[in-house]
Task: structure prediction
Amino acid sequence: QKEVEQDPGPLSVPEGAIVSLNCTYSNSAFQYFMWYRQYSRKGPELLMYTYSSGNKEDGRFTAQVDKSSKYISLFIRDSQPSDSATYLCASSSSGSARQLTFGSGTQLTVLP
Amino acid sequence: DGGITQSPKYLFRKEGQNVTLSCEQNLNHDAMYWYRQDPGQGLRLIYYSQIVNDFQKGDIAEGYSVSREKKESFPLTVTSAQKNPTAFYLCASSPQGSDTQYFGPGTRLTVL
Result:
């Protein structure tokens, strides 16, 4: 079993929809949670970072961590075609980048 | 501009040939990483280096080699021993004490 599981999709939504992307993890020691966005044929870029449980909001993006259920979510409000990308979740227990564990990514397409 | 550069963007190789992928960063980051990305499999760690002249194997190091002679540079050699080298290769770096990684644009290697 992978430590971080992510539904690969693909997920297609109409422009303006609310998107929910999710990951589950098995390592209860994970405390640091990230979302990366990767456009086609590009490197991933850090999108959101959260520590421990709770929500973090940045513009149209909200990252949510529920440690009791080991569930990580990324919500995108008012989705735009420019949000079309693969979204990777990542987690770590130690705060060390060396220990970062990535999900396999969810491919999202926002249709105009 | 600070960042991570990878070259070339696309690389073609004949079977049986070694090939070296370049990764350079001017972010003054201590740690550098190489990942391989295949469809549906997410990021798999090949090698990482936390300091000059030192590097460690990741999860899939067989058929690959690296060097870290300078802080800014972490080249990856894909040897003829790598059985299935066609993939998208990503280089990343992180500053000391950080729990996040920053990625380069990637190199797509195709073996003909």
User: Anything to note?
Assistant: The mean pLDDT of chain A is 92. DSSP finds no helices and eleven strands in chain A.
